[in-house]
């Protein structure tokens, strides 16, 4: 038995070594999925998936050079640029998202970082979207301390800022901001009291040791991100990664399973790239511990399977969308989860498709 197989998997740890992570990746596929599923069931209702909708509030013309991104002004991808969306239009999108079952509304702007003049608009968006009864998330690039505090004051629940890949491979993908810049923004978000959404992209030509390095960085943060998006590269024509070779889908599933094992209480999210995945591959991802998806017609600027197709898949798999609950404190969260997990343990093993 390897060192990885002897680890107490449900423990929250922040001291992973790359060797240990690589040992998880090297487990036989069935053993890895079984372990991930055990960890998943210890902390979550295995038949619930959180649903978020993503809205691009400012599209294209980004000064950064992220090699995968059609929104970078440096690549000719034919993307239509759009200025910062009016608050009323954002609210229209948020109402539609809520009506189609989303519980979290994520707003993304293609900026290196927000400017001072943008802050009143984005904070107003947060306040008004929250007033609709949705959780809010934003991704606006790098933040300074004041901006993080302003967003937290407005009531922003989550801030997304991805590490993208390992510290070692990062320079192959982005040169206009450093890995350290990203870690600092994540720290500011945490210090301001918001929840962290941070993950990466798989299939950008990195090796398994880089995928292990990315997950190690995320899991060894002082607190695990509450939300961990694992994206599959979408090869957009005109970007430097358009000719990248396809990744073995099982390697993607392994990545989900390893993320689940290393960050047992985080929501692991299937994000960009889901459109190219078959229903069977998405199902394997849920089995590996993914329990959050982006849903809606567009994922920023790349396609996303239509919302009702997602709901049909949920129906075929007996998955329910996770409801948005407002809890008084952590103890209430734990109590709710414990009762759901107990229900799950008492439930019959086989899903009754006739119900
Ligand atoms: S990923 Fe974000 S920061 Fe990078 S080019 Fe795209 S929009 Fe800009």
TrEMBL record:
Q: Which molecular-function annotations from GO does this UniProt entry contain?
A: 2 iron, 2 sulfur cluster binding; 4 iron, 4 sulfur cluster binding; biotin synthase activity; iron ion binding
Which InterPro entries does the UniProt entry name for this protein? Aldolase_TIM, BATS_dom, Biotin_synth/BioAB, Biotin_synthase, Elp3/MiaA/NifB-like_rSAM, rSAM, rSAM_sf
Which residues are listed for [2Fe-2S] cluster binding in this entry?
106, 137, 197, 269
Where on the tree of life does the source sit, at the highest rank?
Answer: Bacteria
Q: Which GO terms describe its biological process?
A: biotin biosynthetic process
Q: Which PROSITE patterns match?
A: RADICAL_SAM
- The signal peptide, as residue positions, is none
Enzyme Commission no? 2.8.1.6
UniProtKB keywords: 2Fe-2S, 4Fe-4S, Biotin biosynthesis, Iron, Iron-sulfur, Metal-binding, S-adenosyl-L-methionine, Transferase
The entry marks the following residues as binding [4Fe-4S] cluster, namely: 62, 66, 69
Q: Looking at the keywords, is Transferase present?
A: yes
Q: How is the cofactor bound?
A: Binds 1 [2Fe-2S] cluster. The cluster is coordinated with 3 cysteines and 1 arginine. Binds 1 [4Fe-4S] cluster. The cluster is coordinated with 3 cysteines and an exchangeable S-adenosyl-L-methionine.
Every copy of the Radical SAM core domain together lies at 47-274
Whether Transferase counts among this entry's keywords is yes
Which pathway is this protein assigned to? Cofactor biosynthesis; biotin biosynthesis; biotin from 7,8-diaminononanoate: step 2/2
Give any Pfam family that matches.
Answer: BATS
Give me the reactions it catalyses. Answer: (4R,5S)-dethiobiotin + (sulfur carrier)-SH + 2 reduced [2Fe-2S]-[ferredoxin] + 2 S-adenosyl-L-methionine = (sulfur carrier)-H + biotin + 2 5'-deoxyadenosine + 2 L-methionine + 2 oxidized [2Fe-2S]-[ferredoxin]
| Cofactor(s) listed | [2Fe-2S] cluster; [4Fe-4S] cluster
- Return the NCBIfam families for the record: bioB
Quaternary structure, from the entry: Homodimer.
Q: Which family does it belong to?
A: Belongs to the radical SAM superfamily. Biotin synthase family.
- Function as written in the Swiss-Prot or TrEMBL entry: Catalyzes the conversion of dethiobiotin (DTB) to biotin by the insertion of a sulfur atom into dethiobiotin via a radical-based mechanism.
| Protein name (Swiss-Prot/TrEMBL) | Biotin synthase
- Organism per entry: Microbulbifer aggregans
């Amino acid at each position: 038995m390897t060192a990885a197989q002897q680890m107490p998997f449900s423990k929250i740890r922040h001291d992973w070594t790359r060797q240990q992570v690589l040992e998880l990746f090297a487990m036989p596929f069935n053993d890895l999925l079984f372990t991930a599923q055990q960890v998943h069931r210890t902390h979550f209702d295995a038949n619930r998936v959180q649903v978020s909708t993503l809205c691009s509030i400012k599209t294209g013309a980004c000064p950064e050079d992220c090699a995968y991104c059609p929104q970078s002004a440096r690549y000719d991808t034919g993307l239509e640029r759009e200025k910062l969306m009016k608050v009323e239009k954002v609210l229209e999108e948020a109402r539609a998202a809520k009506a189609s079952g989303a519980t979290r509304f994520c707003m993304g702007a293609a900026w290196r970082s927000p400017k001072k003049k943008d802050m009143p608009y984005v904070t107003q968006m947060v306040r008004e979207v929250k007033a609709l009864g949705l959780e809010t998330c934003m991704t606006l690039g790098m933040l300074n301390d004041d901006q993080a505090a302003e967003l937290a004051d407005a009531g922003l629940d989550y801030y997304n800022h991805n590490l993208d890949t390992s510290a070692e491979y990062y320079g192959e993908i982005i040169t206009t901001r450093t890995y350290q810049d990203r870690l600092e923004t994540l720290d500011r978000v945490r210090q301001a009291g918001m929840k962290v959404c941070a993950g990466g992209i798989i299939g950008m030509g990195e090796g398994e040791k880089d995928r292990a390095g990315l997950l190690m960085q995320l899991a060894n943060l002082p607190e695990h991100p509450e939300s961990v998006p694992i994206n599959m590269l979408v090869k957009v024509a005109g970007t430097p990664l358009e000719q990248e070779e396809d990744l073995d889908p099982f390697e993607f599933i392994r990545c989900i399973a390893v993320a689940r094992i290393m960050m047992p209480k985080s929501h692991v999210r299937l994000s960009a790239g889901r459109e190219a995945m078959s229903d069977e591959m998405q199902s394997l991802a849920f089995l590996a511990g993914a329990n959050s998806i982006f849903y809606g017609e567009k994922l920023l600027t790349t396609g996303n399977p239509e919302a009702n197709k997602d709901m049909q898949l949920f129906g075929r798999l007996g998955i329910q969308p996770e409801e948005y609950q407002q809890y008084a404190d952590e103890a209430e969260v734990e109590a709710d989860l414990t009762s759901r997990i107990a229900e799950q343990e008492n439930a019959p093993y086989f899903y009754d498709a006739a119900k």
